[in-house]
Amino acid sequence: MTDISADLLAEILDEVRDDTSGELVPHLGDYEHPSPDALALAVCDMDGQITSAGDDELLFDLQSASKPFVYALALDQKGVDEVADRIGVEPSGEAFNEISLEEGTGRAPNALVNAGALAAHALVGDADDDEESRFEQIRGLFTRLVGREVEVDEEIVEIESRSANRNQALAHLLAEAGSLARDPHEVVSGYSHQCAIRVDSRELAHMAAVLANRGQALGSDEQIVGHRAARYANSVMFTCGMYDAAGDWVYQVGLPAKSGVSGCLFAVVPGRLGVAAFSPRLDGHGNSVRAAAAIEELSDRLHLHVLDEV
Ligand code: GLN
Fold first, then answer.
1. Which of 97, 102, 167, 212 has the CA that lies 20 to 30 A from 116?
2. Percent of the chain with pLDDT over 90
3. What is the CATH number of domain 6-59+201-302?
4. Which Gene3D superfamilies does the UniProt record give (predicted)?
């Protein structure tokens, strides 16, 4: 049981509320954001008990917050060696959609930049599974993580598909280097659908708690992702989850975390908590300004930094 109260979470939100710096989803062009001022914070303990504050039931797209989970699914399905042939585990120190692969190997640098996320997406499913059945495996994963049938935001898929030149370029580059298991067009389409899966902050905290619980469902012994896959996903989140701000994040906050350009952000407190925050405006790295500030404040107040005892 957690002793974190909704009042504490509300207090933290009040502390970060006035910071309206940052930009809304830059890659979506003139898309009119339905809730630019939304702000939410949620935590989920290992019993599945969720405490939250703010706009905690507002749905948002997972975007890059989907990446560690699909990476874990690829690890479960294909094993570590096959995944490692295509995706490395080193921070790239570059922007999330940088057009660059690992020198020498042609692998994606890691699973949390777009190149690696495309490669991980392509690894899901058997050789003869079509795009739809592969996507159903991915949607099924998020449905199990959330405990409700998740849906895709078709408007976002439509807008992203019209402006997917960078991801198309990355997918073709990966295919050329032998690091993509499938047709690049199919992979970019499936990946756009994966990014547009919608959850709310309470659900994202629950998903994070599964990664904090060795990949196991909360309150049952169902393994949603394998223990080892969860550990690898957490490891890569620790070093690469905040893109080229990852070093600063580990230093200040000290938790594996993953952001999405919708403004969501989740963090994993191993064996204790899943944490999620949502606020749409992003800093120059593509991380939510206020979601990051709220989780930093929570980590600070509750001494959640994984190296706090040292
Ligand atoms: N759909 C976005 C993209 O591929 C996801 C990026 C993100 O959340 N950082 O560009």
1. 212
2. 87
3. 3.40.710.10
4. DD-peptidase/beta-lactamase superfamily (3.40.710.10)
| Mean pLDDT, rounded, for 260-285 | 97
> Tokens in use for 108?
């994606």
In the chain, list all ranges with CATH 3.40.710.10: 6-59+201-302, 64-195
Q: How far is the CA of 262 from the centre of ligand 1 (A)?
A: 8
- Mean per-residue pLDDT for 130-138? 96
With cut-offs at 50, 70 and 90, classify the pLDDT of residue 31: confident
Provide mean pLDDT across the span 88-103: 88
Confidence class of residue 27 from pLDDT cuts 50, 70 and 90?
low
Which residues touch 51 (CB under 8 Å, ≥6 apart)? 2, 4, 5, 6, 9, 42, 43, 44
Question: Looking at the predicted complex, does its ipTM rise above 0.90?
Answer: yes
Rounded to the nearest angstrom, the distance between the alpha carbon of 47 and the centre of ligand 1 is 31
Atom of ligand 1 nearest to the CA of 117: 4
Please identify, by atom number, the ligand 1 atom nearest to the C-alpha of residue 65: 8
Write the CB contacts of 257 (distance below 8 Å, at least 6 apart in sequence): 237, 241, 242, 249, 265, 266, 267, 268, 295
- pTM beyond 0.95, yes or no: yes
Diameter of the chain by CA atoms? 53
- The CATH superfamily assigned to 64-195 is DD-peptidase/beta-lactamase superfamily (3.40.710.10)
- Phi and psi at 277, nearest 5°, equal -140, 155
pLDDT for 267 equals: 98
CA 64 / ligand 1 centre spacing (Å): 5
- Amino acid present at 195: C
